[in-house]
């Protein structure tokens, strides 16, 4: 089913919970530390980094946009499975940055937006009918006066999703293309068939996207109110850009392990994509923290939401008060719950989870809010 073909996504029971999850990574060490006690805390990192020199000519437009954001707060989750495992689980609440440009999206877009402003150009990108990336890009473009163009995998005669309605309301021009055309999106000159605007790959997956994540990366490891820094950092992965950006920004760092949780089938391929992004960004695996992937959390594939996942999210939200969605953060916390329940994280470990936002996508899963 095309992601544009219906106004709500359908649940599927194709797969079981991630009991068979596997790890793809560099050599692993034990994750342990003295037990820590913390409460809701605020990141005490320095202010948002200034734009890189080659983007400084963009003027005050992007800075004005970023003034809407502060570095996100860190909250400790009151979560039974974590307490029973003797593990501290914190969440970096990047979902709270902005109603439309939340999570990791603003950070991946900030340098392309600066370049578009500097060069007086629009931006063209691509995504599905429920794309968080296109949703955020359209909103940012509307606030900055940057024209935006979205190439959408789908059919123009199908009902518009709420995501695409929002994008159009924010002035984004939409072109609907076939799946066959969409598969060519990484080929040179692909976007030029539709527009001469600045091309931003799907999900912001570019060198600029990687570089723009530096402030968010630092917030992921900043100590809060004198408490110890995390030993394990987790994030859901789609394009792998956020994982590459965090690894590149943090560099070598003893006692820290960074884990990505792929949310689509063939997640093992993400390992090679992250390495390529690191290489193109001037980094190397020797200059990153120890890192790896937890495989097995895809729940049938990208944007699939079997009944067990919907049930998990409802129970998780009721217990923790933290709202998530099925595409990324729901699968991320389901994978973490599996590792905690099976004793796969050493007691005393402090875990920090990146909430990447995307809550607008919950509208595609009406079962989540069913009584």
Q: What can you see in these coordinates?
A:
The protein has 371 residues and is of the alpha/beta class. It has two domains: 22-100 and 208-369, Rossmann fold (3-Layer(aba) Sandwich); 105-205, Rossmann fold. Helix content is 31%, strand content 14%. The protein has helices spanning 61-66, 80-85, 105-119, 132-144, 162-169, 179-182, 207-211, 214-221, 241-250, 269-280, 307-320, 329-341; strands at 22-25, 74-76, 88-92, 123-127, 148-153, 173-177, 198-199, 232-237, 257-262, 290-295, 350-354. Strand 4, helix 4 and strand 5 (148-153) form a beta-alpha-beta unit. The radius of gyration is 20 Å and the shape is globular. The model is unreliable at 1-8, 10-16, 18-22 and 26-59 (pLDDT under 50). Its cofactor is pyridoxal 5'-phosphate. This is Pyridoxal-phosphate dependent enzyme.
Helix percentage: 25-40%
In CATH, the architecture of the largest domain is 3-Layer(aba) Sandwich
Q: Which of globular, elongated, flat, extended, rod-shaped describes the shape?
A: globular
Q: What's the rounded overall pLDDT mean?
A: 84
Number of contiguous helices: 12
Number of DSSP strand runs: 11
Uncertain ranges = 1-8, 10-16, 18-22, 26-59
Gyration radius from CA atoms, angstroms: 20 Å
Query: Main sheet: which strands, in order across?
Result: 1-10-9-8-11-3-2
How many domains, in number, for the residues? 2
Question: H/E order of the elements?
Answer: EHEHEHEHEHEHEHHEHEHEHHE
Structural class: alpha/beta
CATH top level class name of the largest domain: Alpha Beta
**CATH fold naming of the largest domain:** Rossmann fold
Give the DSSP E fraction (strand runs of 2 or more residues). 5-15%
In this structure, how is the largest beta sheet organized? 7 strands, mixed
Distance linking N and C termini: 27 Å
Report the oligomer.
single chain
Region (Disordered): 1-27
Biased composition (Polar residues): 1-14
Domain Tryptophan synthase beta chain-like PALP: 101-357
Cofactor: pyridoxal 5'-phosphate
């Amino acid at each position: 089913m095309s992601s544009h073909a219906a106004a709500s996504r359908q649940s599927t029971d194709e797969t079981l919970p991630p009991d068979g999850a596997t790890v793809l990574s560099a050599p692993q060490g034990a994750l342990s530390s003295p037990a820590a006690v913390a409460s809701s805390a605020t990141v005490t990192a320095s202010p948002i980094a200034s734009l890189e020199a080659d983007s400084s000519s963009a003027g005050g437009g992007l800075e004005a946009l970023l003034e809407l954001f502060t570095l996100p707060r860190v909250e400790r989750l009151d979560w039974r499975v974590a307490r029973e495992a003797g593990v501290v689980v914190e969440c970096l609440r990047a979902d709270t940055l902005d109603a439309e440009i939340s999570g990791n999206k603003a950070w991946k877009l900030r340098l392309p937006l600066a370049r578009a402003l500097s060069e007086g150009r629009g931006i063209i990108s691509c995504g599905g009918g429920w794309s968080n990336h296109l949703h955020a890009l359209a909103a940012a473009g509307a606030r900055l006066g940057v024209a935006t163009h979205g190439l959408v995998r789908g059919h123009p005669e199908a009902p518009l999703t709420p995501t695409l309605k929002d994008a159009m309301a924010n002035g984004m021009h939409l072109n609907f293309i076939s799946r066959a055309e969409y598969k060519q999106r990484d080929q040179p000159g692909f976007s030029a068939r539709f527009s001469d605007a600045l091309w931003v790959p799907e999900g912001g997956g570019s060198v600029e996207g990687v570089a723009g994540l530096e402030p968010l990366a630092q917030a992921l490891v900043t100590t809060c109110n004198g408490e110890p820094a995390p030993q394990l950092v987790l994030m859901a992965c789609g394009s792998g850009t956020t994982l590459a950006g965090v690894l590149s920004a943090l560099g070598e760092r003893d006692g820290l392990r960074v884990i990505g949780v792929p949310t689509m089938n063939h997640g093992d391929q993400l390992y090679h994509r992250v390495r390529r992004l690191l290489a193109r960004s001037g980094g190397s695996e020797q200059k990153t923290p120890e890192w790896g992937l937890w495989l097995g959390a895809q729940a049938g594939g990208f944007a699939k939401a079997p009944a067990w996942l919907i049930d998990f999210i409802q129970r998780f939200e009721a217990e923790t008060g933290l709202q998530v969605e099925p595409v990324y953060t729901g699968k991320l916390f389901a994978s973490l719950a599996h590792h905690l329940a099976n004793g796969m994280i050493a007691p005393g470990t402090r875990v920090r989870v990146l909430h990447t936002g995307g809550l607008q996508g919950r509208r595609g899963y009406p079962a989540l809010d069913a009584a």
